[in-house]
Design a protein that fits this description.
- The protein has 167 residues and is of the alpha+beta class.
- The longest helix has 33 residues, at 134-166.
- The protein is built from six helices and five strands; from the N terminus they run αβαβαβαββαα.
- Strand 4 (108-114) and strand 5 (117-120) form a beta hairpin.
- Strands 2-3-1-4-5 form a five-stranded antiparallel sheet, with helices on one face.
- The chain has two domains: 3-131, Alpha-Beta Plaits; 132-167.
- The mean pLDDT is 82.
- The chain is 53% helix and 16% strand.
Length: 167
């Protein structure tokens, strides 16, 4: 790969990192072509972009964005790496867990950046999967706001039935 090609890839990765709220780092080494194709198809269906990138180019892209990536330098940026980009924090984690349920251990979660916070290690995958999306939070808030109104309406409805029965 020439320096010009590397510079283009670094620029692309930097733009994707800057434009996405979340990126995950995975290890897909040892996956068969069929497994990779199935994983990419699943990513596409969930709106997640998956791209295999050399660690040195990921580091340079992060440096270009002035992001302190020292938390990722350990296990996350060693070995083969694939990047997953998403605007919803929990979607890549849920996607990885769903793919693993099919009996495939790879791609393996190595680390993630969620709203500029780093999560490194396999043990963080469950926590990331449990993060609620914006839509889920809005739904919870609406349900909480509707509950008192529904109680009042229910109470008024019961009162009107009692009044109608007495009349």
């Amino acid at each position: 790969m020439t320096k010009e090609e590397k510079a283009i890839i670094i620029q692309e990765v930097a733009q994707k990192i800057a434009g996405a709220a979340t990126f995950y780092i995975t290890d897909g080494s040892g996956m068969t072509v069929d497994q990779v194709n199935k994983f990419r198809k699943l990513c596409f269906s969930k709106g997640v972009e998956y791209k295999v990138v050399k660690n040195s180019l990921i580091k340079k892209a992060l440096q270009q964005l002035n992001i302190d990536h020292t938390a990722l330098n350990g296990a996350a940026l060693k070995g083969a790496s694939g990047l997953m980009f998403s605007d919803t924090a929990n979607v890549p984690a849920k996607l990885l867990k769903q793919f693993h349920k099919g009996g495939v251990a790879k791609p393996e979660f190595k680390g993630a950046s969620v709203f500029a916070d780093f999560y490194v290690g396999k043990d963080k995958l469950d926590a990331l999967a449990s993060i609620k999306s914006k839509e889920e939070l809005i739904g919870d808030i609406i349900a909480l706001l509707q509950a008192p109104a529904q109680r009042v309406i229910g109470g008024l409805t019961n009162e009107s039935r009692v009044f109608a029965e007495q009349a």
